[in-house]
Amino acid sequence: MRRRAGRKRGFGLGYVIALLCTFPVHLASAVFGVSSPKTSGWYHLYVLLVAGIAPFLFRTAWNEPERRKIITTFAFAVGLAGLSLAV
User: Fold this and answer.
1) The overall pTM is greater than 0.85
2) Which residues contact 47 (CB under 8 A, 6 or more apart)?
3) Is residue 17 scored above 70 in pLDDT?
4) End-to-end CA distance of the chain
5) What is the three-state SS of 32-87?
6) I need a labelling partner for 2 at 20 to 30 A (CA). Which of 25, 51, 60, 70 fits?
7) 57 contacts 16 by C-beta, under 8 angstroms
8) Whole-angstrom distance, CA of residue 29 vs CA of residue 38
9) Selected residue with higher pLDDT from 80 and 37
């Protein structure tokens, strides 16, 4: 599943999740002066929210609503977002 960004460029769900789980967190850490945002419960909630919302940006790839494809997409999103908690 890819979204187009111009004629030849595109990005996938993994890129969106990785970007949303790192850049805003570091930005908030710098703005609020928090040395380790991963210890906060808000960070865990934010990552779970990213994992739940990001697949909807790619819902046009669900031409036929196959339950298996949708479940796999959300499982990938939760797994990748969870990996960002561990790293």
Assistant:
1) no
2) 21, 81, 82, 84, 85
3) yes
4) 25
5) HCCCCHHHCHHHHHHHHHHHHHHHHHHHHHCCCCCHHHHHHHHHHHHHHHHHHHHC
6) 25
7) yes
8) 10
9) 80
| 49 CB-near residues (< 8 Å, 6+ apart) | none
Write the Ramachandran bin of 33: left for phi over 0, alpha for psi from -120 to 50, otherwise beta.
left
Distances in Å between the Cα of 25 and the Cα atoms of 19, 31, 46, 79, 82 are 10, 10, 9, 18, 14
Residues 42-85 have pLDDT tens digits of: 888 999 999 999 888 887 766 777 888 888 888 989 999 988 88
